[in-house]
UniProtKB/TrEMBL annotation:
This is Pyrroline-5-carboxylate reductase. It comes from Brevibacterium celere. Gene3D superfamilies: NAD(P)-binding Rossmann-like Domain, ProC C-terminal domain-like. The keyword NADP applies. NADPH binds at residue 56. Residues 5-96 form the Pyrroline-5-carboxylate reductase catalytic N-terminal domain.
Length: 260
């Protein structure tokens, strides 16, 4: 595994990656940028071989691989202040910023890889999208739950769009709790029940040999209540609305329409 990883932009996802990797006794050394000082200090205190650098350039000079995890609007100004040698690997976790846009900002032509880490990397259960194929990067994220490698950047962008569904999932659960509360349950009891119902379903997703579509009949009885709600709520119109919403997100990610 890569022996030293620098992180520029120690946000929530970058922190999750460090926490997940540091669960391994043989984890790499980490060099963290000084911005977001409180979070970086927490990581350095919590884990061995994790240091906070005085500057982003020090992160670059100390690291074999540099993970760029800043906001899209910050990329230009951050990279303009850095001199990244050609023998480094830059792993960009910046959403929506293409390889074509990043390459001119890296004049010494280091190896460039894009990734989409998910919050579950902290528990080493997050599947990370990677483009292009890069064995060292894949090894790191395989240890955090697995990887899928996109054939091209257009395919990679579809997974970026798919990540926009996470808060909608929690909005769905909130809607169920709202309905229970309207029926007279306390908010605490309603949320407690919903958390138990859906938290218990997580184990069903862990078997890769069972397709998602097969999980639908496995959790309903013909003519039963689950089938009734699914048929009424997730009908053809709502499935089409979901696809259109994903098209719109994908358009924002890529800057070009996919909906025709």
């Amino acid at each position: 595994m890569t022996s030293s990883i620098g992180i520029i932009g120690v946000g929530e996802i970058a922190s999750a990656c460090v926490d997940g990797l540091c669960a391994r006794p043989d984890h790499p050394r980490f060099f963290l940028s000084p911005r977001t000082a409180e979070r970086a200090a927490r990581l350095a205190e919590a884990h061995d071989r994790v240091e906070v650098c005085a500057s982003n350039q020090e992160v670059v000079e100390s690291s074999e691989m540099i993970v760029l995890s800043v906001l899209p609007g910050q990329v230009g100004s951050v990279l303009a202040d850095l001199d990244i040698p050609g023998d480094r690997t830059v792993v960009s976790a910046v959403a929506g910023v293409s390889t074509e846009a990043l390459t001119p900002l890296l004049p010494h032509d280091p190896t460039l890889v894009r990734v989409i880490p998910l919050p579950a990397v902290r528990e080493r259960r997050g599947v990370t999208a990677v483009f292009p194929a890069h064995p060292a990067t894949e090894e790191i994220f395989d240890s955090l739950g697995g990887t899928v490698v996109a054939a091209d950047e257009a395919q990679f962008s579809t997974l970026s769009a798919a990540t926009a569904t996470m808060s909608a999932h929690f909005a769905f659960l909130t809607g169920i709790a709202d309905w229970l509360e309207a029926q007279g349950w306390s908010r605490a009891d309603a949320e407690h029940f919903v958390r138990g119902e859906f938290g218990g379903l997580a184990t069903a997703l862990e078997d890769p040999n069972t397709s998602l579509s097969d999980l639908i009949p496995a959790h309903e009885t013909p003519g039963g209540l689950n089938e009734m709600l699914r048929a009424e709520w997730m009908d053809e119109d709502n499935r089409a609305r979901l696809a259109r919403a994903l098209d719109h997100v994908h358009e924002r990610v890529t800057g070009s329409s996919t909906s025709g």
